[in-house]
Amino acid sequence: MSQAFVDHCLELLAPLGPVRSRRMFGGHGLYADGLFVALVAFDRLYLKVDADTEPRFAVAGCSPFVYEGKGTPVRMSYWTVPDDALESPALMLPWARLALQAAIKAAAAKAARPAAPGAKPRAPKAKPRAPRRCPPAGPGLRRRPASGRPRGRRRASA
């Protein structure tokens, strides 16, 4: 996989806002505003689709991302873009907006979905505690009383 091609894809998607890439599964995932909108694999750019946007990609002659999983082909919700869209950010923008739309819907659906049966419930985030005033006394250490004198033996009276 060519890093130059990944950089080109980031440039094409830049009109969406801040875009970053992350290496994964032998390819790269592309994120816009923290949402997974595209996949770069085998030197091809695949954009996120959903039931509403997939027909537009199919009509344009694009093809889905398919990989071999446990002996059977697995089709994912990412499709290639038309060849002319790879020429400039302006030509990519309508397709990138469709991918962002699909990613937003997917994130909303995931947030609304109940947890899977048997999954451990997530603990709520703990509130930060106030810092302690002094460290606790360890084994063999004594705290001094408020008077400031050490406890224990008394001084001999004179």
Q: How do the helices and strands line up, and which of them pair or pack?
A:
Layout: H1 3-13, E1 19-24, E2 27-32, E3 35-41, E4 44-48, H2 54-59, E5 64-69, E6 72-80, H3 89-112
Antiparallel strand pairs: 1-2, 2-3, 3-4, 4-6, 5-6
Beta-strand segment tally: 6
Structural class: alpha+beta
CATH superfamily placement of the domain at 3-112: YgaC/TfoX-N like chaperone
Q: Tally the helices: what do you get?
A: 3
Strand order of the largest sheet: 1-2-3-4-6-5
> How confident is the prediction overall: mean pLDDT?
83
β content, as a range? 15-25%
Shape summary: elongated
* N to C succession of SSEs: HEEEEHEEH
Q: Radius of gyration over alpha carbons? A: 29 Å
User: How much helical structure, as a percent, in the residues?
Assistant: 25-40%
CATH topology of the domain at 3-112: Yope Regulator, Chain: A
Sheet of most strands = 6 strands, antiparallel
Considering the chains and any ligands shown, give keywords for the structure.
158 residues, Yope Regulator, Chain: A, 6-stranded antiparallel sheet, 3 helices
How would you sum up this structure, described in words?
This protein has three helices and six strands, in the order H-E-E-E-E-H-E-E-H. It is an alpha+beta fold. The protein has a domain of 110 residues: YgaC/TfoX-N like chaperone (Yope Regulator, Chain: A). It has a six-stranded antiparallel beta sheet with strand order 1-2-3-4-6-5. The N and C termini lie far apart (89 Å).
